[in-house]
Write a structure and sequence with these properties.
about 290 residues, alpha/beta, Rossmann fold, seven-stranded mixed sheet, six-stranded parallel sheet, about 20% strand, elongated, binds NADP nicotinamide-adenine-dinucleotide phosphate
């Protein structure tokens, strides 16, 4: 029988007979979903956790839950209740609160933590990057004169740019906006990554974008905008990653498996991948 496991506003649909997992994957990224596919193929008893920010999260081939745990205390309780032995933090590099909670909770619960981290993007010769420490600093860095700005930062912190209402913003969101967004001159593209260089270059040209604001997420799935800006000679206001307490960290799924092999039983891989491992390409819709 499926168990319900919801917290706060979240709806959760874990499907497990045992309610006991060796591995908890903190997700919300393409890498977490790729890891979930690999863990499913390897037959690892793992559960994937989503924060619940997107309306239709990708259905993974392992049990999953949705919503906050309730801080460090709630995460410790979840780890102990489900007999978790290893937590893999595969959250976005800017999910600093969740990652900090994971460091503290794993220490308290006495379980192993591994972060699966993307390598940050690095400025290449000819790039016009302006590095800033925060989104607030990015809004300031756009300057006083009106510009056409691509905001590749998601939905959560758009209000920060309300302090610079003179610019025309193009925002890319995973879900269609519900209600009014907090910026006066705003248009929205609804699309789910990974994005391609050709599409992002065409989008920037068509919308006559002259500056791109990006978080230094790193990785391939969101890099297209950086490559397109490079090709078109656009300025990039690049927000540096937030600080996260020290923790063991790797950059590839193979390295995660190597660490897991020392902690949990890793059966040999199943040859054919599950159908849900095939990436679904979403059509791009415009508002
Ligand atoms: P955050 O500020 O670090 O986390 C805020 C709170 O949200 C956490 O304290 C936790 O609540 C809950 N939470 C976050 N990730 C969770 C997860 N995977 N499972 C369960 N609860 C989670 O995080 P955020 O920056 O809002 O990001 C939220 C999610 O979106 C993350 O899963 C992240 O991977 C994904 N994401 C973030 C960005 C970004 O730019 N920040 C970009 C793409 C994807 P409790 O304290 O109640 O446990």
């Amino acid at each position: 029988m499926p168990t319900m496991d919801s917290h706060g506003k979240a709806v959760s649909i874990p499907v497990s007979m045992s309610n006991r997992y060796d591995v908890l994957v903190l997700g919300g990224t393409a890498e977490a979903n790729q890891l979930a596919d690999v863990l499913a193929r390897r037959g690892v008893a793992a559960v994937l956790s989503y924060a619940g920010r997107t309306e239709n999260p990708k259905q993974p081939p392992i049990p999953f839950r949705v919503g906050g745990f309730g801080g460090v205390e709630g995460l410790v309780r979840y780890i102990l209740d489900h007999r978790i032995r290893v937590v893999i933090d595969a959250t976005h590099p800017f999910a600093a609160q969740m990652s900090t909670n994971a460091v503290l909770a794993c220490a308290e619960a006495g379980v192993k933590l591994i972060a699966l981290e993307r390598t940050p993007w690095i400025e290449a010769q000819g790039d016009k990057w302006l590095r800033v420490p925060s989104l607030e600093a990015a809004a300031d860095a756009l300057g006083k004169a009106p510009r056409r700005v691509f905001l590749g930062i998601g939905r959560m912190h758009l209000d920060v740019f309300a302090s610079a209402p003179q610019h025309a913003y193009l925002v890319r969101l995973i879900d269609p906006p519900r209600g009014k967004l907090p910026l006066p001159h705003l248009s929205v593209v609804v699309a789910r990554g990974p994005f391609t260089f050709a599409n992002d270059k065409a989008l920037f040209e068509e919308r006559r974008i002259d500056v791109v604001v990006a978080k230094n997420s790193g990785g391939a799935a969101a890099e297209a905008k950086i490559l397109a800006a490079r090709k078109l000679g656009l300025q990039v206001v690049m927000v540096d990653r937030p600080a996260i307490p020290a923790r063991p960290s790797v950059t590839t799924i193979d390295e995660v498996l190597a660490v897991l092999a020392t902690e949990v039983r890793l059966p040999e891989p199943v040859v054919s991948p599950p159908a849900s491992a095939v990436p679904v390409k979403q059509p791009m819709r415009r508002w």
